[in-house]
Amino acid sequence: MNDCKLIPARRVETELIDRNSRFITNAAPAFSVTQAQEFIAWIKDKYPDATHHVRVYLIGHGSATIAHCSDDGEPSGTAGRPALAVLQGSGLGDIAVVITRYYGGTKLGTGGLVRAYSDSMRKVLDALPLAKKVATTTLMFVVPYALFESTKLMVSNHDGVMVDQIFGADVTLTVRLINKHLDSFKERMVTLTKGAVEFIMIEERENTIMPLRNRKH
Q: What is the domain extent for residue 207?
C-alpha cells in the first residue's frame, strides 16, 4: 500500500457546531485545479448565504502536488492554513475541500477559529471513504456457466471490479482491472479456461477511482 495514491472515493459532507457557528465541510475528488475550482463554485452556489467558504485543495501526490488554501475573509492564518496542514498530514491527494461557515453571533477568537477549522477538516477526513488512483484496463470476455463462480473469485482476488454481466448461452463479463494485476489475471484465466478465453479490450484509463476494500465506510 506504500505506493498507493489515496484519494476520496466520492463527495462527503459533515457538520460541526461551535458556539452557534455552523461549519459545513464538503470534500470530493479533484484531479485538476479546474475540477477543484468547479467543486468550490458548486458549494458556494449550494450555500449562497454563508458567511465564509474556506477553500483548500491538494492536486496530485508527493513532490508534484499543487496545494492551495484561502481564508475567505477570516483573520489571516486562522482558517485555510490550519485546515491545509491537517489535510497534508492525511496522505491524501487529488482532493478539494470547502469548509462553509455560518456565523452564530459569538466570536471564536484566533485560537477558536484555528481549532474549529482544524476539527472540521479532521471530521470530514474521518468520514471520507477512501479510494486509490490507479491506471486500469477494462476487458470483455466470455466464460461458460460452470466457470462463472470461479471467474468472479478470480476477479476479486485480483482487486478487480465486475462492471457488467450478460447471461446468454454463456456468460459475457466486463471487468475492470488495475494494470499491475492485468497480466496475472489473464494468465490465470487462460489456465482456468484451458486456453479457451479471448479478451476484448474495452477501455484504458490513467486515473480510475478504485474504492479500498475493508474500509468501515
A: 133-211
